[in-house]
Design a protein that fits this description.
mainly alpha, 2 helices, about 40 residues
């Protein structure tokens, strides 16, 4: 459901702020990869 998705994204965004730069870089790479594969 859409609502649950938004909640997950909010949790993830909060977690993202706590991440190290290295993890952020990996996350951005992964996000880009997901966009490419769609």
């Amino acid at each position: 459901s859409y609502g649950a998705n938004v909640e997950l994204i909010e949790i993830f965004e909060h977690t993202y702020k706590e991440m190290t730069p290295q993890l952020k870089e990996q996350y951005e790479t992964h996000k880009a990869f997901l966009k490419e594969s769609k």
